[in-house]
Design brief:
Belongs to the alpha-ketoglutarate dehydrogenase family. The chain has 32 helices and 28 strands. By secondary structure, the chain is α/β, with parallel strands linked by helices. Helix 5 packs parallel to helix 6, helix 8 packs across helix 18 and helix 14 crosses helix 22. The N terminus is likely disordered.
C-alpha cells in the first residue's frame, strides 16, 4: 500500500519513456531523409503534432530519454521562447499550452486517486487504530504501530502528495464507499472525519480480505452510511434493562456465594444483550431454533438471562447440602446444558433455545454444536438454515490456541457439514488464565483463524453497549443473508481472576490496577442515558430493585429443593422415546434378523446401477457382479452385510448417516456406496437411496481430513434424534488418537455427567498385519479401561440380563468376527430401548478373507447378535475330551483355526469368540467354561500383552470362574509400539504365539 502514491507518476514516466524510445527508433530509421526532425516525423506519421507533443512531454521529464537530435531541437526551441511565445514553432507552442493543461488535469486525477487510496486504506487498516480496549492500555492487535497510510495527523497528508490546502477541496466519492450517504462529493476534511468515525472508533472492521465484491459492499453500506447506528429511546431502555440483569445477576451470586467458583462475566456483562440481540434479530428473520455452545465463563448468566432457566434451579446448584442426582455422576454447575422453548418477547414468536452441555476442555464443544445444528436442519428439511442456527461463544486465548477451532471452521462450507453460517462471539478478556496474549499467540488478533473461510470479523469495544448491539444486529443479518460464518470480537476485560478465588495481580499487576479503577459498563451507560434524558435516575434504580427482588424470591424458593433432578438440565430431550403410552419401555430387545426377501432385494440393488446411461469403472463392474453372485448364493461378505444392515434400517424409517475420511468408497476399496460416472464429471449415484419408495434417506459423506472436529460433529448429529444410526469411521483405527478429547469428555462420560443418551457408532479398523504401528491398532485397551462395568462384581443372571447389562454400561465395545454379527450389532443399536455409544473394531484383511463370510441363515428373521460365538466343530461334540479352550476375539480367530487344522487338533482344542467385549458377557463365558470342565483356559490375542484386551478380560474371567481355574495369556510380549512395520518380524511373532497357543504342555507346572 505504501507504493500507491508513487504509481501515477511512475506509470506516466514509464509510458513517456516507452514512447520516446519508439520515437528514437522511428527517427533513426529515417535519418537520411531531408529536413528537420519535425519534418521527417511529420511526413512519416502524417502531421505528427500529437506525436510531437508526446515527444516533448518525454523530453521535459528527462532530456536524456530522447535522441540527441531531438534534445538539440527542443533546447533551441526553448531558447527561442525567451523572445516571446510568438517566436516558438507552432508545434512547440501548442505543446507548451497542452503541458500546462495536462499538468492541471494530471494533478486533479492524482488527487482523486489519492483520495480513493485513502478511503481504501481506512477500510483495510482502520481497525488497527480503533479504540477497542475499554481499559485504554492495550492494543487489540498487540501492536501500537499506526499504519503510515492512515491520516491521523496533518503531516500524513504528504503520503498521498496532498497538502493542508487540499482539506477543503471537494472530491468525487468512488462507488466503493457509502460515507457520503446521498451526497456524491465531500471535502477531504469531511471524508477523513467520516472514515475515522466509521473505522477508528469503538468498532474495528476486518472484511476487505473477502473475495466477494457484493459481500464487501454490503458490509461497507451497513457501517459507512451516515446515521445507521441510531437507537430509539425504547431500544436504549431495553438495552439498559438487559445490562441491569446481566450485572446484577453476577453481583447477586457474589454476595450469596462469595467463596464459590462461578466463572462470572464481570467485565463483559454486555455479552448478555449481545446474545439476546443476535437471537432477537434472527427470530425476526424466521429462525425458530437456536443452538448455543460456550465455555464456562458467563455460562450461569447465559442460562439465567438468555435461555431463561428458572433461577431457583441455578441457585440450587450452589447448595452445599445438595443430594446426589437421580442418575449419573452429574457435573459442575458451569458445565451443564439446557433446552427451553419460550416466546421471544421482542418478536412475539416461538423460539427454542438449546445450550449444549460441555466439559472444561475449551473449544471441544464447537463441532458438537455444529453437528447438532446440522441434524436439526436436516430433520426439519431446513436446507438453507432459515429455521435453525448456531451461536458459538469463545474465549480469546482458546479461540487462537485450539486447533479444533480451525477444524470446525473448515467444515463450515462443506456440503454435508455446513450449518449455513454460525455467529461466533469471542469474549476477548485480553488474557488467558494468567498468560499475556503477547506470548500466547502469533497472530495480531485471536480471531485471525476465521479469515481462512472469509468470515468478516467485527471487533468492538465492550464498554460501548450500543456499538456492541449494532454489530450483533449486522452479524445476525449477515448470517441470514449470506449463509456464512461471522465473528463478533467483544474486546473487554476480566474484572476478577480466572475464577473468583484466583489472584490476578501476581501476573498482571498493571492491568488489574487499571481494572480496579474501571467504571462498570452499567454505570457508564446509565449515566449516558440519564444525561440525555432517555431514563431518569429513579427509573434506573427501580429497574435494579426489580431484578434484585426477582433474585431474592428465587433464592428463597431454591431452599425448598431437596433433590436436584439433573434431567432439568437436558440439552437434547427426546420426547416420547423412553416411554410408550406414558409407561417406561420394556428392557427387552427384539430379534435383529430380517425376512430373506428383504435381504435378497437389498443384495440385488447393491449389485446394480439404478440410473440409466451411467458408466461405471470396469473394476467396479467386477465387484458388483461379485455381490450379485453372493446374493444368489445366499451369502454375504463384510461390505454386503453392512449394506444390508443399513438398507433394512432405511426400510424401517431409520435415517443412516456414515461420515469419515473416504467412507464413500471405503479406505480399503470395499464399500463403494457412491458410484461415479466415468464420463460425466461429478455425476454420482447412491444405490442405497433407491431401495424402497418411501425409505428414510441415507447420507454417506467423505469428511474433511479431520478426526477431532468430524467426530465431534457426528456426536452432535447423533444428539438430535434417537431414530437415526450415525456412524463415524476412522480411516485407520489409530486415527481416533487425535479425537481422543471427544471420546474422553463426551462419548464415554456423557450419560454419567449430563444424562445424555447418545447412540453414535465408531468404526475403527483394527488388526495386526505387519503394516506398522500407525495402521494397525485401534487401541482397544483405551476403550476397555474407560468401561464402567465392575470386574469384581459377580452379576445376577436374570432373564433380561443381556439388555439390562447394556443399559447399565457407559458404552458397548465389540469386535465382530463374522459379517452376520456385524449386521446384527448395527441393527441392535437401533432396536434397543435406549441409546449407548457403540465402539466397533472393524477388520481390514477380513474384508476379503474367503472364510469371513456369512449365510443368509444367520441373518434372517429370528436370528440376533451373538455376544459369544461358541465352538461348533468336533471339539464341541465331545467337550469332555477337550484339553484346551481358547478364548479370543476378532481376526486372530481365523489364524487360530488355520493353525489348529494344520496341527490336527480339532478334537483337543476348542476356540470360542468373544464378540462383545464390554460389557463383559459373564453369563456366556461361564457357560462355555463349564462346558469344557477338563480344559485348560487360554486367552489368545494378536496384540501385545500390555495392549489389547488381556488386562480387561483377565480379572473378569477370574470373577466368573470364582478364581478356581486360571486363564493363561498367549500373544505377543509387552512392547512400546502397538505393531511392527517389518513384515518378516510380524510373521515370526505370529508363528511364535500360535505355536504357544497349541502347545498343550506350555503351562504345565505353572501356577497363577
Amino acid at each position: 500500500m505504501s507504493q500507491l502514491r508513487l504509481l501515477p507518476s511512475r506509470l506516466g514516466a514509464q509510458a513517456a519513456r516507452l514512447r520516446a524510445t519508439h520515437d528514437v527508433l522511428a527517427f533513426s530509421c529515417h535519418r537520411r531523409s531531408s529536413g528537420p526532425p519535425a519534418t521527417v516525423l511529420s511526413s512519416k506519421i502524417g502531421g505528427g503534432s500529437s506525436y510531437m507533443e508526446e515527444m516533448y512531454f518525454a523530453w521535459l521529464e528527462n532530456p536524456q530519454s530522447v535522441h540527441k537530435s531531438w534534445d538539440n531541437f527542443f533546447q533551441k526551441a526553448s531558447e527561442e521562447a525567451s523572445s516571446g511565445p510568438a517566436q516558438l514553432p507552432s508545434v512547440v507552442r501548442q505543446s507548451r499550452l497542452a503541458v500546462s493543461s495536462r499538468t492541471k488535469t494530471s494533478k486533479l486525477v492524482e488527487d482523486h486517486l489519492a483520495v480513493q487510496s485513502l478511503i481504501r486504506a481506512y477500510q483495510i487498516r482502520g481497525h488497527h487504530v480503533a479504540q477497542l480496549d475499554p481499559l485504554g492500555i492495550l492494543d487489540a492487535d498487540l501492536d501500537s504501530f499506526v499504519p503510515s497510510d492512515l491520516i491521523t495527523t496533518i503531516d500524513k497528508l504528504a503520503f498521498y502528495d496532498l497538502q493542508e490546502a487540499d482539506l477543503d477541496k471537494e472530491f468525487q466519492l468512488p462507488t466503493t464507499t457509502f460515507i457520503g450517504g446521498s451526497e456524491n462529493t465531500l471535502s477531504l476534511r469531511e471524508i477523513i472525519r467520516r472514515l475515522e468515525s466509521t473505522y477508528c472508533q469503538h468498532i474495528g472492521l476486518e472484511f476487505m480480505f473477502i473475495n466477494d465484491v457484493e459481500q464487501c459492499q454490503w458490509i461497507r453500506q451497513k457501517f459507512e452510511t451516515p446515521g445507521v447506528m441510531q437507537f430509539s429511546s425504547e431500544e436504549k431502555r431495553t438495552l439498559l434493562a438487559r445490562l441491569v440483569r446481566s450485572m446484577r445477576f453476577e453481583d447477586f451470586l457474589a454476595r450469596k456465594w462469595s467463596s464459590e467458583k462461578r466463572f462470572g462475566l464481570e467485565g463483559c456483562e454486555v455479552m448478555i444483550p449481545a446474545l439476546k440481540t443476535i437471537i432477537d434479530k434472527s427470530s425476526e428473520m424466521g429462525i425458530e431454533n437456536v443452538i448455543l455452545g460456550m465455555p464456562h465463563r458467563g455460562r450461569l448468566n447465559v442460562l439465567a438471562n438468555v435461555i431463561r432457566k428458572d433461577l431457583e434451579q441455578i441457585f440450587c446448584q450452589f447448595d452445599p447440602k445438595l443430594e446426589a442426582a437421580d442418575e449419573g455422576s452429574g457435573d459442575v454447575k458451569y458445565h451443564l446444558g439446557m433446552y427451553h422453548e419460550r416466546i421471544n418477547r421482542v418478536t412475539n414468536r416461538n423460539i427454542t433455545l438449546s445450550l449444549v452441555a460441555n466439559p472444561s476442555h475449551l473449544e471441544a464443544v464447537d463441532p458438537v454444536v455444529q453437528g447438532k445444528t446440522k441434524a436439526e436442519q436436516f430433520y426439519r428439511g431446513d436446507a438453507q438454515g432459515k429455521k435453525v442456527m448456531s451461536i458459538l461463544v469463545h474465549g480469546d486465548a482458546a479461540f487462537a490456541g485450539q486447533g479444533v477451532v480451525y477444524e470446525t471452521f473448515h467444515l463450515s462450507d462443506l456440503p454435508s457439514y455446513t450449518t449455513n453460517g454460525t455467529v461466533h462471539v469471542v469474549v476477548n478478556n485480553q488474557i488467558g488464565f494468567t498468560t499475556d496474549p503477547r506470548v500466547a499467540r502469533s497472530s495480531p488478533y485471536p480471531t485471525d483463524v476465521a479469515r481462512v473461510v472469509n468470515a468478516p470479523i467485527f471487533h468492538v469495544n465492550a464498554d460501548d453497549p450500543e456499538a456492541v448491539v449494532y454489530v450483533c444486529r449486522v452479524a445476525a443479518e449477515w448470517r441470514n443473508i449470506f449463509n456464512k460464518d461471522v465473528v463478533v470480537d467483544l474486546v473487554c476485560y476480566r474484572r476478577r481472576g480466572h475464577n473468583e478465588m484466583d489472584e490476578p495481580m501476581f501476573t498482571q499487576p498493571l492491568m488489574y490496577k487499571q481494572i480496579h479503577r474501571q467504571v462498570p459498563v452499567l454505570k457508564k451507560y446509565a449515566d449516558k442515558l440519564i444525561a440525555e434524558g432517555t431514563v431518569t435516575l429513579q427509573e434506573f434504580e427501580e429497574e435494579i430493585a426489580k431484578y434484585d427482588r426477582i433474585c431474592e424470591e428465587a433464592y428463597g424458593r431454591s431452599k425448598d429443593k431437596k433433590i436436584l433432578h439433573i434431567k432439568h438440565w437436558l440439552d437434547s430431550p427426546w420426547p416420547g422415546f423412553f416411554n410408550v403410552d406414558g409407561e417406561p419401555k420394556s428392557m427387552t430387545c427384539p430379534a435383529t434378523g430380517v425376512p430373506e426377501d428383504v435381504l435378497t432385494h437389498i443384495g440385488n440393488v447393491a449389485s446394480s446401477v439404478p440410473l440409466e446411461d451411467f458408466k461405471i469403472h470396469m473394476g467396479l463392474s467386477r465387484i458388483l457382479r461379485g455381490r450379485a453372485d453372493m446374493t444368489t448364493q445366499r451369502t454375504v461378505d463384510w461390505a454386503l452385510a453392512e449394506y444390508m444392515a443399513f438398507g433394512s434400517l432405511l426400510k424401517e424409517g431409520i435415517h443412516v448417516r456414515l461420515s469419515g475420511q473416504d467412507v464413500e468408497r471405503g479406505t480399503f476399496s470395499h464399500r463403494h456406496h457412491v458410484l461415479h460416472d466415468q464420463e460425466v464429471d461429478r455425476r454420482t449415484c447412491v444405490p442405497m437411496n433407491h431401495l424402497w419408495p418411501d425409505q428414510a434417506p441415507y447420507t454417506v459423506c467423505n469428511s474433511s481430513l479431520s478426526e477431532y472436529g468430524v467426530l465431534g460433529f457426528e456426536l452432535g448429529y447423533a444428539m438430535a434424534s434417537p431414530n437415526a444410526l450415525v456412524l463415524w469411521e476412522a480411516q485407520f483405527g489409530d486415527f481416533h488418537n487425535t479425537a481422543q478429547c471427544i471420546i474422553d469428555q463426551f462419548i464415554s462420560t456423557g450419560q454419567a455427567k449430563w444424562v445424555r443418551h447418545n447412540g453414535v457408532v465408531l468404526l475403527l479398523p483394527h488388526g495386526m498385519e505387519g503394516m506398522g504401528p500407525e495402521h494397525s491398532s485401534a487401541r482397544p485397551e483405551r476403550f476397555l479401561q474407560m468401561s464402567n462395568d465392575d470386574s469384581d462384581a459377580y452379576p445376577v443372571f436374570t432373564e433380561d440380563f443381556e439388555v439390562s447389562q447394556l443399559y447399565d454400561c457407559n458404552w458397548i465395545v465389540v469386535n465382530c468376527s463374522t459379517p452376520a454379527n456385524y449386521f446384527h450389532v448395527l441393527r441392535r443399536q437401533i432396536l434397543l430401548p435406549f441409546r449407548k455409544p457403540l465402539i466397533i473394531f472393524t477388520p481390514k484383511s477380513l474384508l476379503r478373507h474367503p472364510e469371513a463370510k456369512s449365510s443368509f441363515d444367520q441373518m434372517v428373521s429370528g436370528t440376533s447378535f451373538q455376544r459369544v460365538i461358541p465352538e461348533d466343530g468336533a471339539a464341541a461334540r465331545a467337550p469332555e475330551q477337550v484339553r484346551r479352550l481358547i478364548f479370543c476375539t476378532g481376526k486372530v480367530y481365523y489364524d487360530l483355526v488355520k493353525e489348529r487344522s494344520s496341527q490336527g487338533l480339532e478334537e483337543q482344542v476348542a476356540i470360542t469368540r468373544l464378540e462383545q467385549i464390554s460389557p463383559f458377557p459373564f453369563d456366556r463365558v461361564k457357560q462355555e467354561a463349564e462346558k469344557y470342565p477338563g480344559a485348560e483356559l487360554v486367552w489368545c490375542q494378536e496384540e501385545h500383552k500390555n495392549m489389547g484386551y488381556y488386562d480387561y478380560i483377565s480379572p473378569r474371567f477370574m470373577t466368573v470362574l470364582s478364581r478356581v481355574r486360571p486363564i493363561w495369556y498367549v500373544g505377543r510380549d509387552p512392547a512400546a509400539a502397538p505393531a511392527t512395520g517389518n513384515r518378516n518380524t510380524h510373521l515370526v511373532s505370529l508363528k511364535k504365539f500360535l505355536d504357544t497357543a497349541f502347545n498343550l504342555q506350555a503351562f504345565e507346572g505353572k501356577t497363577f
